[in-house]
């Protein structure tokens, strides 16, 4: 259980403080500030023990969220709770920043009141919370009988994540496959480690209690059905790459609405979806990952005061697709005095504050190549320490799934209301982003 | 922080809140209330506004109500008499037709921390428990726990407890979990909520309806339940199987813990569950948020204690990325060291090598120490790397490498020749005292293999006046004496100078005494000195003790999925290095944040707590004898092997490593051989006698244990620790 929750800005000023249990004194707020936020060293652990009280913290941009407890709690749970808290706040007012928190100060206190009681998590689904949080300050008399019964049915219903009697004029479904691809590559171009962690996020606006069935090119399913069976798709999903037919999923987990027994026996994913946005599944793959970019670094030290860097990036996907928001960070030594950059595409700039050359390209098509060369002037130092050469890191966004995952179908059945699978408008989108994408040089 | 002029601010707010014009304008009024809360958050004392805030609670605006309640909950304990004024409004709200208002009022009423409130809240809580809206029931159930925590000494109301047990069957899942939480707190002194067969089965069936927090907590509560038969056990396990794959890492790990706990008698099931969850744990280690990644790594370390090979194929997942925080990198390195095998050793070493040049000296030293650990099995490859690092001529790297060499030579003597060659070539003298000591030890111990050793020593002896650290001086004395014993001609002169300086001019008494000791020893003759000073050059048996063996699952499972694994004391990698004077701030910080050492304070309520042996204050021979005679033998066991054939020192050191103190033992090979040991743990004192009557034949080693006060759990733990130590020592000798 959680004894208290504090939110600080980067200076250590308290923005929100809520204490749930007596064993957390008022000085706990200050203890964390003094010992962790204002500590001179780097953070040594996300869990800190100060005077027999454990402080769990996470940082979002420059905001610190800290949960405090005196009990021997389950650490993973507390962290997940803090993430959930961040998610809920983001769902209400967008990015977690000092300004947003100050502006939504009352709302956050309201949320904290509902989410935790006596330190125990109560209700953390954004959809369900919206019933209890009244930002406009509705008068109690205004509540109609109908709304009242809604509250009751929602929290007593058999299916905790969906209430009855939802109606939409247009039945729509949005399916996002969001992946983050992680890479660690040696200077010689050898893949040291690579994995994709992906999420399937769904926004459903469907009437009634629909039953959904979701299919993807999971290797186990495809192998079972035989190779010919893949062509019967109605073509709603937009597979964007040719190449391999199926992918091997190392590990996957589902939203609680998915019937796990069915997944274990038949490997089929069927569920009654919650209303609105939620995360249907999370997965991880490590085999046959399509690395959208190759980075080829070339660093040459010319004497003691000059360094020549040449970096080539190659895009490795279909020429018809466009990658966006490409950003390459090329680290420079600490004693850099001047940098001259020449690049064929995009803009490159030396940022002294980050000790790096930042090269930005807005768009880049597949199977292209681009290069940057830079001459770095160094100040002579008597420091014998060799420059450690941090890796070149990269950020990008591509419109396909680097794991190769494809949505094969998503069928909707609602036996009670008369709309069929064909009436539902479905949208599928693939976004691949860079996670930690590093190439050593 | 608005500490300055705070009185002005409070006065101004007071004026505004009592202004009838403001009160009439709802929006302005609420704005002022918000400001009060804002100041409260920032730590300003706004308790003097209590009266005005109570007035503001009489409103139909729910948001305003919530804010005022928040204020009142914070200050109610300071102003109990005024808070009573608000109770009436709250009690009225408890009868509101809107369940949300009812719940809100009840929750806040229970949050008032002041004496005497109980009589007002008891009736609404009882009514709330029977409310038809589940929202109110949830609040009421938590209210029971709050009421109890207000008056912890008062007798437990049996009717409420019964009502709570009945509510475990509530259709609303959160009410069910809240009931468990409330019962746990109310019945804390009686050992918490009772999980019998019907309740356990009911909870298991409701598992899938609960939210992830509830699942995680119910799984923890179920740890208390012991299935009657194997059939029931396997039914439960198959019901829970799906949760091993839960989307929420904490649920998956909690399930794993329950699996391991329930299947204590079925190691195959345990192994299977670990295999099954390894995927989930790996995902946790690769999760986007670094805190969860850290928690995942810590749990992987725990699992590796009994299944070291489980993650070996995935070793690449533990390579560090540059941007990761150092706490993750340290853990990853520790794991990598454990995962090394014949196939991946080259790649892992290459990886670790690249960390050695990291910007953070701490991390670089940890990486070097990690290579040193691997060197105990793959010495050749590692020595190449370590030698290569010396060529970088970076002070912190050189220092770490030399310390690693010293440990390596001690643990695996076959690498001595190579190390000596390297040290010979390493002309640059290290600057920090830790490294100096390591180098001096190497020179003294293996002086005959390092041809330039006396000359290096001479440099140190000449620079003695500028040396500040007394431990370096002591090491220098020992090294010089040892060197004199093997190469007298080259050393005699400088040893004389050294002893003279230390005896005549040294102000540090320890150093002076040491020098005098050696001086007198040398007067006894060279042979006598050799006998005293020269010991064994290495002790490979120690590596067995410090190295990690496969431990049974039960060793760590009781701590699994709690705070324990996250703050487990760091394994051998960084401990010796952290105290180096390059980071003087570390010690200071550790005092402030005793995270790595003291985990236990919050744990001990668990019966199944892990046995933590410690030495405590030394026991005198007399008091040992008295206690020994007073107590009965609680446990006697004949071990299947004889007494260890190692030197007494090794035996003593080995036992001390596991926190068992040797009080006395029969010297040499005389028979019957006896040893008396003692230790403390889990609030008991344990005394033990080891006895061997005949040489090697039938008469095996007999252990008799006495204990005060008796604690079966600790006793069993002690015997198993002791026998494993003795066994290891026997194997080595």
From TrEMBL, chain A:
One of its GO terms (cellular component) is plasma membrane. Its main location: membrane. InterPro entries: Adaptor_comp_med_subunit, AP2_Mu_C_sf, AP2_Mu_N, AP_mu_sigma_su, Clathrin_mu, Clathrin_mu_CS, Longin-like_dom_sf, MHD. A 1,2-diacyl-sn-glycero-3-phospho-(1D-myo-inositol-3,4,5-trisphosphate) binds at residues 347, 349, 351, 360, 362. Residues 170-440 form the MHD domain. The keyword Ribonucleoprotein does not apply. Gene3D superfamilies: 3.30.450.60, Mu homology domain, subdomain B. Keywords: Cell membrane, Coated pit, Endocytosis, Lipid-binding, Membrane, Protein transport, Transport. PANTHER family: AP COMPLEX SUBUNIT MU. This is AP-2 complex subunit mu-B. It comes from Triplophysa rosa (Cave loach). The lineage of its organism: Eukaryota, Metazoa, Chordata, Craniata, Vertebrata.
TrEMBL record, chain B:
GO terms for cellular component: clathrin adaptor complex; endomembrane system. SUPFAM superfamilies: ARM repeat (SSF48371). The keyword Protein transport applies. Residues 615-727 form the Beta-adaptin appendage C-terminal subdomain domain. Keywords: Membrane, Protein transport, Transport. GO terms for molecular function: clathrin binding. GO terms for biological process: intracellular protein transport; vesicle-mediated transport. This is AP complex subunit beta. It comes from Triplophysa rosa.
